[in-house]
Design goal:
The complex is a heterodimer.
Chain A: E1 15-16, E2 22-23, H1 26-36, H2 42-63, E3 71-72, E4 85-87, E5 90-97, E6 104-107, E7 120-127, E8 132-140, H3 141-150, H4 159-163, H5 180-185, E9 202-205, H6 213-222, H7 231-234, E10 253-255, H8 266-270, E11 274-276, H9 293-307, E12 317-325, E13 328-339, E14 344-353, E15 364-368, E16 373-378, E17 388-395, E18 401-405, E19 411-413, E20 416-418
Parallel strand pairs in A: 5-7, 10-20
Antiparallel strand pairs in A: 2-8, 3-4, 4-5, 6-9, 7-8, 11-12, 12-13, 13-14, 14-17, 15-16, 15-18, 18-19
Chain B: E1 2-4, E2 10-12, H1 16-26, H2 36-49, H3 54-84, H4 88-95, H5 109-115, H6 124-133, H7 136-145, E3 147-148, H8 152-157, H9 164-167, H10 173-196, H11 210-216, H12 222-244, H13 253-258, H14 266-272, H15 275-304, H16 311-322, H17 328-335, H18 340-347, H19 349-368, H20 371-374, H21 378-393, H22 397-402, H23 418-426
Antiparallel strand pairs in B: 1-2
Helix pairs in contact in B: 1-3, 2-3, 3-4, 3-5, 3-6, 5-6, 10-11, 11-12, 15-16, 15-19, 15-23, 16-17, 17-18
Chain lengths: 423, 435
Amino acid sequence: MITSLSHAQFSNDFFPVATETIMLSNTSTQWAKRVCHPIADTDEQWHSFLRALAIAGFEQWLNQGNTTLSITYPQNSAPQRDANIQVGDFQLCILPMGALKDDRVAIPAAVVTGENAAHLYVLVEVHEEVEQVRVLSGLRHDQLRQYLRQCGVEDNAGREATGGSGPQAPNFGGFESYPPQDWGARGASSQHGLFEKMSEGYVIPTSEFSVSPEKLLWYFNCLNPDVIVHTAVVRPGIGEIVTGHLDEAVNTVINTGKWLRGELDAVAEQLAWQLIPPSLELSYGLRDSSKGPLREKTSSILDDLRQQGVEVPEGATGACKEIRVGNVACEVYSLVWELPESGEWSLFVVLGPGTDEPLPAGLGLQVSDEVSVLSRSEVMPDAATTYLYVQAIGNLDEQFTVEIGSSDSETVNLPAFRFTPET
Amino acid sequence: MRVLTTAGKLGRRDFPKAQQLFKSSFEDEDIADLTDRACQDTLWRICQMGADNALIAQLCLRCWVSHQIVYTCIELAQRFGTTYGFQAEDLWPLVLDDDGKVPTTYQSSAMVILAGYDPSKAALSTWARRLTKNHSDINQFLLGLGLYRATPWAILNDTKAAQLSRFLPHLSESEVEIAAKLLGAYHRIYRMDRIAQQASRGQRCTTPTDEQLQRIDPVQPPNVVLAQLHDLAEQLRQSRVAARGGSLPSQSIDIHDYGEPAAPTPDDTEETQSEFLKTYRQNFLDTLGEAIQVTVEGYTAHYQKRKPSQGGVYRQALELFHCQGRSMGEIAKTLGLTNQVKVTRLLDLKKFRTQVCIYWLTKLKDQVQTDALEHMSVDELDAIADQLEQILTEETQAVMDEAASEAQIPKNRTANSVFARRICAVVPTLPLPPD
């Protein structure tokens, strides 16, 4: 009466206990039980419990061996899911993983944006029933932002921290406008899957967590945390406005250097920018309507600006694109030129209305380098503003980003601009 | 029935009454058509009817289950025995505990298997094998050797209802809804009880009691609820294991985890080394001894605080591994530690090396105080960290010349590296902690 046993799928559910595994001390487990005991909601209680075990285990791991790092977290209450622990000068968000691994993890929005943004997000495997914990890997804040940008999802810089109503779901509206194949290429299992639990925050594939536990130690000991979180939190201006999603893939960079030779670069072309017919006798008075309405329009804008004392040199070349910011149709003109004497280049961006309606009050345009906002301009109430413009000048290896938005609509980030004249 | 002899060997016991019942139950059937499943179902029905021969029919099933248990143990040993050092014989005493008495005098493993069985959910063979793999003593035994298998209850505890549709994509929407409801009810009852068990230190999640099962679903009989929960957990286990593409490394633990990164050829190193390391490489090598000393002392003091104190054991392990090139398994035996996992954990090699390098860089920053060091970017630090690791694994020319005289040191081990050489120069000179 004995059936032959199938080898398929047999016993692939036993796993080696990794040598980096930490055995939780009695103190750790008792503490976790004590602080989580009063939580009434059983679901919340359990997840707080796992989080507490993960934090206590992380502390044990940190203290093993020769270390002088200090770790701080509230001792008398259960750890909240959007609360950081502190290691030295670093803010850490500890993310527990259960008995069997998931391939994605949710990071609360409150520790991604705003004042409580963490420097590092650390995955910690928790085997509650055998009281074992293992520090798996980390993700730096800058890596997370980069990932979100690649997915076309900009995070809310600042708003939620000042909103005072606790963590909120970030606005992922519009992500469906991305072609599905893009999502496949980024490793998400389905277009919707990546954001299936938006209420929990940002859902990130665990494969993005690439910082080894040893590297975490290096960072804690030898790195200034400011190099990880800088622009994200402190950037003023439009950064304070809710930044919804990007309407363009900002991980790509537009090379304006090519424009000088009368061609669009591949990225700009793909994003449907239109080259403003070059050379630039688009300057004043030499308008030639046979060269197309676009140039005529550009020339007209530059004329207007010139009357306000704003000069764009004759060697400038540019491209134009229609965009929508919330309900407002706009046109963006980007003009670039080289400053050979100083080895620099200049980006000049003009924002104009896309219809006969003037730009609404509150709409802003700003240009930033990698560290800070360089220039910002905004439509003031009751002022007859036809165009907004900003300008940035930088070394040839610098690149600039441009944001357009207003306090009551989403913000649009244009792809970064760089200037590499090709030979 | 498969039983253990007093000598602990696998034996066989016959029960004439059971054989008789079996024969009489199936004498009208054509043997060729008789399937395991048909036999099980018939015997199971007789058990459930509670007639005079119900207990004998149950004995038949107990015999059958005992074979399943034996087979499961053999299979576990075939799969893991070589790597983790155990045999099927080591498992039998843990789980083969039916004494064959009618009526039963205690809850043997076979009785537990039968008590929770729901024929509508699975074949008895599947159920028996699953429960054998879930057997707490077997799990505890294997955990001691370094193999962990989550209990179904741990899996259910850690699964959120919202994850079900993703983890079990083959279920229909209504099936997911039913599963989510069951899981939610289980969570409310079981998790709270688990946290409330203050005394459950290091204890595996145990099978929910009938009382708990009743609270989870008051309408259905406990064994049905139990089977449903088991089924859900098993589906999750398979899906999440499959999703990871998980399979075990075939090598033993110390080889797997403690193979050093391959030493780079000198040319590569020259090219990839940053300006930083060109400047400070010599400083690193000159002060490596001090960094090792401080780190070893830190670890020794840390282990010395354990009860019983392990500072001395740590230092011996360090020397045996780096200076004498002994394997983790040998070191475990020499120092009286349970297994190689204990040794690897004690040596904590990766982190140890990192801490040595960190000590040096921190010290250098204090001494030099340049802007470049104070405001390193992540990439710069990453590069420095990786290059220091490389330097530690390099083999010096002098060492390679001596290699012939170091025949006792296995190839591809740390003993030839810059790091191991320096450890062996420093560690024996340090005072040992008091016993």
